[in-house]
Structure formats: structure tokens, C-alpha cells
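C-alpha cells for chain A. Residues wanted.
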């Protein structure tokens, strides 16, 4: 399974940069664990190779090579505001990318601030399940249509393409679905932290 730290640019079918030994040497020499240096290396490699190398790709390569990272910088007041605004509306991965922090850092900080990562308790929308599982709505809809993922109509009306209603997926049913179908979700956009917390009853 691809780890979260290896995540690159957004999208399950996103372009994946093919790393050379020379590029890894640049990361090995210049990487210091800071966000600023990671961005600088990404820009340098993108210019040298004429290929899109992202901030997250640099961090991923550093982690794969076992390069130690410095302690993450302290959270700023603005970062905490953004975290509070995005919680409950976006997945942990999306928030982490926005703030250029690790998914675990986002989860830990939200707990320390006493912020809820859920706008409601006990159920999820299909959109939220898509974000957690790292796939598009068509794949999740297929599971719903086959009965593999139990889902009801939140408003009593079947959701249509034009919106106006949403799928109501109970937490217990989502956990059961994950336990039975985890092998189908191996993409690099899977929100592993949320899944682990969900299965452990910490969400």
C-alpha cells in the first residue's frame, strides 16, 4: 500500500514523477526537514527535469530514504484558524495539503485544540466516504448499488445528480464496509489516519 507520506499531487490518477539517483542525491544533500526547503527543492527539480515535482513528492522521497526531519514548526494563529474552518468539511489529507503539514499533525492538533473533525455524529455522506477512501463518487456509488455499502436517503428522497439530497451512511455500516473491502482501496489518496481512528472508535 502506498503510504500517505508518499502522496504527490491531488488526484488518484495524478502524474507520478520517476526519480533518478541524481535527483535523490539532491534531496539527500539539501533536505533539512523544513517546509521552505522542501518547496525550494521541488522547484529546483521541476526546473532541472522539466517535470512537475511537488512539495509532497520531495517529502515522500526524504521519508523513504530515512532522512530525519527537524521538529515541525509551531502552529501559527492563522493556521489554527484555517484548521478550524476546514474541519468537518474536508478530509484530513486535503487539510494537510492546504497547511503543508502531515496528516497526523492535523489530527493531533485538532484534538489538542478540542476541535471536532465531524460536523455530525454517527453518519457520513457519500462525499465524505469518497474522501476517506480516496476514490471518486462513481466507485463508491457502485458499492452502494450492489449493496456492499449500506446507505439510506437522508431526506427520504433518493439523491440525484443535481443534488438536493444526500446519502446517509451510518458509521457502523462504514466500518463494516472497510473491514470487508479494505483490499480494494490501495491508492495513495486513502485517508489512512481517519480510517485507523474510525476503526479504533476515536473519530
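Reply:
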Amino acid at each position: 500500500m502506498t503510504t500517505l507520506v508518499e502522496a504527490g499531487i491531488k488526484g488518484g490518477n495524478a502524474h507520478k514523477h520517476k526519480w533518478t539517483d541524481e535527483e535523490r542525491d539532491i534531496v539527500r544533500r539539501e533536505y533539512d526537514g523544513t517546509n521552505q526547503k522542501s518547496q525550494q527543492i521541488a522547484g529546483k527539480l521541476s526546473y532541472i527535469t522539466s517535470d512537475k515535482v511537488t512539495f509532497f513528492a520531495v517529502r515522500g522521497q526524504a521519508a523513504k530514504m530515512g532522512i530525519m526531519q527537524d521538529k515541525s514548526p509551531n502552529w501559527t494563529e492563522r493556521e489554527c484558524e484555517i484548521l478550524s474552518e476546514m474541519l468537518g468539511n474536508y478530509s484530513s489529507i486535503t487539510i494537510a495539503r492546504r497547511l503543508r503539514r502531515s496528516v497526523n499533525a492535523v489530527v493531533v492538533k485538532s484534538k489538542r485544540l478540542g476541535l471536532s473533525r465531524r460536523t455530525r455524529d454517527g453518519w457520513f455522506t457519500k462525499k465524505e466516504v469518497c474522501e476517506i477512501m480516496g476514490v471518486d463518487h462513481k466507485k463508491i456509488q457502485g458499492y452502494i448499488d450492489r449493496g456492499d455499502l449500506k446507505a439510506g436517503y437522508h431526506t427520504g428522497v433518493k439523491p440525484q445528480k443535481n443534488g438536493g439530497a444526500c446519502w446517509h451512511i451510518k458509521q457502523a455500516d462504514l466500518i463494516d464496509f472497510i473491514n470487508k473491502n479494505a483490499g480494494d482501496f490501495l491508492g495513495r489518496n486513502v485517508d489512512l489516519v481517519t480510517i485507523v481512528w474510525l476503526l479504533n472508535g476515536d473519530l
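Residues 1-13 have pLDDT under 50 and may be disordered. The longest strand covers residues 167-170.
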